[in-house]
Each structure stands twice: as C-alpha cells, then as structure tokens.
C-alpha cells in the first residue's frame, strides 16, 4: 500500500503533461527538470520505457547518478553545469522536443533555448517564480509551444479519462517491473510537519509518504 500510494498523482501528472499536452512522439527527446523528485522519477522511467531519450537535471552528482540509473541518458547537475550547454552538446545542437518543467519563471528563457524546432515546454510548478522573460522571436522562428497545467483542479471527467490512459499504457509497465515505485521515506501521519520539512530540504530521491495507521 505504501508503494501504491506513491503512484497515482505522479503518473497522472506525467502522463497528462508529457504525453497529452506535451505530445511526446516516437523518436523524440525529453528533458525533465527535478529528475530525482517524485514527478521526475516517474517521468524518467515512463519516457525511457517508451523508448525515448531522456535528459534530466538534479542538484547533486549523487542525484544525477540516481537519475541515470532510472533510465536518463544524461543527468546534469544544475549547480555546476548549464543545462542549455549540456543539452546542446548531447544533441548536436538540435535540442530536446519536450521539457517538463517544475521551476517556472527563472528557467523560462533557458528552457526556450534548449528546445528543438517545434519543441514544447510544459510547466507544472513555479519553484523558481511565476514570472520570466520570453524571447518572442525565438518562439516564432522555431514554432515553439509554451503551455502548462495543474491537476487537482481538473474535472472528474478529465481524471477518469487519464485513469483509462494509465490503465492501458502505464499499469502494465508496473506489473511487468519495467518501471517501479521509488519511495524515499515514510512518515507517520502525526509527523506531517517533519515530512514537509524533509521535502523542503531537497534531500529526497523519489516519493515521500505519509502513513495512516489503522484504528
């Protein structure tokens, strides 16, 4: 049940944003920011299982190694390297087709620089702020798409449609072991404050779970 609890929100988020809004197609390349987070872990594993080349960013060499073990072709330590430069070198300056971004404003301009022609930037969080500068000419010349979404406010009908997609495309990969739940740490429900503090520390790799003990 602990592993089961780690799955729904992460895979609902990844499937709807990477494969639906981001329209990741066969042969395309994906860049995942926050690769060692719960969402990042799901995105790397799922895209790699579908045969995509996956790049990721993370905040330490250890986390980068973790991302590569999950299936990332290249993980970039954003504290010591520039992801735009690294992606350009790894793709012969072609860029990536889709970026799944949790940072937001402070990464906006560089994300556009890392995209291939007709690339899609999908934003799902604003850890780096809600505002950023946009090179409109780059968007026009490369025919880029900038989009984003939130999951929790979506309708029940939307979530039911996503559930059907997961049953068809994702759950079989879990059943076969090609992708797997990654639970970093489990806290008792009464330790919710400590769980939040641990999450905010950025030390985790994978999901953090609150456990409700039966009465």
Q: What features would you highlight for this structure?
A:
215 residues; two-stranded parallel ribbon
What does this structure look like?
By secondary structure, the chain is an alpha/beta fold. The chain has a domain at 2-148: Rossmann fold, CATH 3.40.50.720. It is 43% helix and 20% strand. The protein has a six-stranded parallel beta sheet with strand order 3-2-1-4-5-6, sandwiched between helices. Helix 10 (192-201) links the parallel strand 7 (183-188) and strand 8. Helix 2 (8-21) crosses helix 3 (38-49), helix 2 (8-21) crosses helix 8 and helix 5 (83-90) packs parallel to helix 6 (108-114). It is globular.
Instruction: Give me the secondary-structure category.
Output: alpha/beta
Topology as a string of helices (H) and strands (E): HHEHEHEHEHEHEHHEHE
Spatial order of strands in the largest sheet = 3-2-1-4-5-6
For the record, give the distance between the C-alpha atoms at the N and C termini, rounded to a whole number.
16 Å
Biggest sheet layout: 6 strands, parallel
CATH third-tier fold name of the domain at 2-148 = Rossmann fold
Number of helices: 10
Instruction: Tell me, briefly, the overall form.
Output: globular
Task: Give a quick precis of the structure.
With 215 residues, the protein is α/β, with parallel strands linked by helices.
């Amino acid at each position: 049940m602990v592993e089961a609890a780690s799955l729904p929100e992460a895979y609902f988020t990844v499937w709807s944003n990477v494969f639906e809004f981001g329209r990741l197609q066969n042969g395309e390349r994906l860049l995942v920011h926050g690769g060692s987070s719960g969402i990042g872990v799901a995105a790397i594993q799922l895209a790699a299982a579908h045969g995509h080349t996956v790049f990721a960013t993370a905040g330490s060499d250890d986390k980068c190694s973790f991302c590569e073990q999950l299936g990332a072709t290249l993980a970039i330590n954003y504290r010591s390297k520039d992801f735009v430069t690294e992606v350009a070198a790894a793709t012969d300056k072609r860029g990536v087709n889709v970026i799944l971004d949790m940072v937001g404003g402070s990464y906006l301009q560089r994300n556009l620089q890392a995209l291939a022609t007709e690339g899609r930037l999908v934003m799902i969080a604003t850890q780096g702020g809600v505002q950023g500068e946009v090179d409109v000419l780059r968007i026009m010349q490369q025919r880029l798409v900038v989009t984003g979404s939130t999951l929790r406010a979506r309708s029940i009908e939307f979530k039911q449609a996503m559930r059907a997609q997961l049953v068809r495309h994702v759950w079989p990969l879990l059943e076969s072991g090609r992708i797997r739940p990654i639970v970093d740490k489990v806290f008792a429900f009464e330790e919710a404050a400590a769980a939040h503090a641990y999450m905010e520390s950025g030390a985790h790799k994978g999901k953090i779970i609150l456990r409700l003990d039966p009465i």
